[in-house]
Structures are given as structure tokens and as C-alpha cells.
Amino acid sequence: MIIEIKGVTFTYNAGSPLARKVLDGASVSITKGEFVGIIGRTGSGKSTLVQHMNGLLKPDSGTVTVDGLDIWSRGAKLQDVRKKVGLVFQYPEHQLFDETVFGDVAFGPRNMGLDEEEVLGRVVEAMDIVNLDFVAIKDRSPFELSGGQKRRVAIAGVLAMKPEVVILDEPAAGMDPAGRDEILGEIDKMHTKGGFTVVLVSHSMEDVAKHAERLIVMDAGKAVLSGDPRTVFSEEKRLLEMGLGVPQTVRMYNMLRQRGIDLPRMPLTVEQLGEMILDMTRARGLGREAAEV
Q1: How do residues 66-122 score in pLDDT, each as one tens digit?
Q2: Residue 290 predicted with pLDDT over 70
Q3: Inter-residue contact 9 to 187 (CB < 8 Å)
Q4: How many other β-carbons are positioned within 10 Å of the β-carbon of residue 143?
Q5: Which contiguous run of DSSP H or E holds residue 147?
Q6: Residue 195 confidence (pLDDT) above 60
Q7: How far is 167 from 37, CA to CA, in rounded Å?
Q8: In the chain, where are the structural domains located?
């Protein structure tokens, strides 16, 4: 396991009248190389959970292990942990600050004490992964870019530090459908081309169904379900009880089954559903033609 969280509890404003327990014995594990989606209704603890994964928050109890090291043990260096585990917050473009795109993406590597040749190589590579034209925009102000470009610059700034794990908390929040598809497509590319372990926090069932290999469901501060998307979404009743839904394609699949129409497997995307219905229609058409002959 690259990340393992065991029995973590965490309370905001502990010891005050505003105390609010957000994690209550949460336990999750992330395997190197996988693409994990974390879902849960607002207040379930998913964002707080991922902020424990690179030491931004310290648990009240429980352990957080990164690459075999208890990150809160004596002698552990959080700076080293954060080199391995990069976190991209919601609306990451709000973190941009430099006069140029190059300066923003280079900030992390420079803080690591790398020489300028290494910094340049990392900036070029990170911008390529998120599909930004280095030559065209490196000297431009990041604040002149489109919303989607700003977000990719912010993500590139994390990638330039070459973490092993990239955590993205609602990376497509506030974007229109085209922008959402674009940024999530870049994250897919980041996972496959860059070889990063990816943890995606999202409220969109469609997004995690399309992109994640495994889902973790948070509820009341605990991880209550884990499995591949089809396994998790087969628990529709339980998800509804937790205030969550399932993708529209899963609802359609269940409706067709209730009407006696069985598809070969649960479709997770509109494209998969369309292909299955088309294949079924063709097969039935061939069956009628054979019967007439």
C-alpha cells in the first residue's frame, strides 16, 4: 500500500463549543498505481480524509502511513511526505500567484532546491502532461488564461514536484460540461501517461463511474463501502439511504432489468449503454430474420 489510514478520528475546533467530529475511525488504503474515486455527501468527511493523506491535518487518533512510514512518528519529515503525496484543492486556480505561468509551475521544484536545468525539465514535462503549450504560454500571466487553463497550470505545479500520488479534491467543480470533460480527460492522461497514483474526490457519480478503477464511499466520518464501480453501484438502495445516487446509466440498467430486459453487464457510461442496446437490437433483428427464413 502506498497510503494506509487506520482508525483515524478528527474533530474540528476540538475542546470548544464549536467542536465537530468529522472523521470517526476511518480506515482506507490506496494501492500504488490505482485510480481511486472517493464519494460521499457533503459533510461525510471525504475532503478531511484526503487532507490527512499528506499531513495537512493531524489525526486525533489512529495512524496515517505513506510508503510504509507512519507520517506522525518521531523522525518523520512531513516535507518528504508532501513530495510523495501532492494535493490539489478545489478551485486550484485560486492558488496561482506568480507573474508568469512558468514561475507558478516552477515554484515547487525551486523550493525543493533543484538546479534551474532540472526545474526547466520538470516544468516542460508537467505542462505537457496536462496539455499546455509550454512555448506559447510560459511567459504569459496565468490570470490571463481561460478557467480550464488556469486549473491545468495549478495541477501542473503539483505534478512538477513529481509526487507518487496526486490527490484532486473536486477538480472539475464549477466548470461547464465541456470543461469538466476536458479536465477529467487530462487527469486520465496523467494517470496513464504519467504513471501517477490518483485519488479523485468527487460528488459526481457519472465522473467517478467513468474514470475511477475503485470507489471508496464515505458516510458519517467512516469509509463504509469499497470496490470497483459496478460493485459499489449495485448497492443502489444503500447509497440512496446515505444521500447518494447512482449514474443515470445504472438507473436505466436497473429499470430495464425490472422490465425483463437483461444487458450483459452494468453500463457505467452513456457510450457503454448505447453500445449494449445497439448490440441487443441487432441480435434481435438477426433472430427475426433467421425465423422468417
Answers
A1: 999 999 999 899 999 999 999 998 888 888 999 999 999 999 999 999 999 999 999
A2: no
A3: no
A4: 12
A5: helix 147-159
A6: yes
A7: 10
A8: 34-51+77-234, 247-293
C-alpha cell at 87: 494535493
**Spatial separation of the C-alpha atoms in residues 19 and 12, rounded to whole Å:** 6
Write the CA distances from 236 to 88, 128, 167, 276, integer angstroms. Answer: 30, 39, 26, 21
Task: Give residue 161's Cα distance to chain centre.
Answer: 18
Confidence of residue 293 (pLDDT cuts 50, 70, 90): very low
CATH of domain 34-51+77-234: 3.40.50.300
Q: Which amino acid is located at 145 in the chain?
A: L
Alpha helices in 203-292 (DSSP H): 205-211, 229-233, 236-241, 248-258, 270-292
Q: Which of 92-96, 97-101, 134-138, 167-171 is least confident?
A: 92-96
Q: Which residues contact 289 (CB under 8 A, 6 or more apart)?
A: none
Burial of 123 (0-12, 13-18, 19+ CB in 10 A): buried
Write down the mean pLDDT value for the chain: 92
C-alpha cell at 28: 482506507
pLDDT at 198 over 90: yes
Q: Please, is 54 exposed, middle or buried when counting C-beta atoms within 10 Å of its C-beta (0-12, 13-18, 19+)?
A: buried
- pTM, 2 dp: 0.90
Question: pLDDT for 36-76, tens place per residue?
Answer: 999 999 999 999 999 999 999 999 999 999 999 999 999 89
Strands 3-12 and 61-66 come out as antiparallel
How far is it, in rounded angstroms, from Cα 124 to Cα 214?
31
How far apart are the C-alpha atoms of 246 and 79, rounded to whole Å? 38
The DSSP code for 289 is: H
Q: Is residue 293 packed enough to be buried (19+ CB in 10 Å), middle (13-18) or exposed (0-12)?
A: exposed
Residue 116 is placed in which grid cell? 534551474
Q: Do the beta carbons of residue 281 and residue 223 sit within 8 Å? A: no
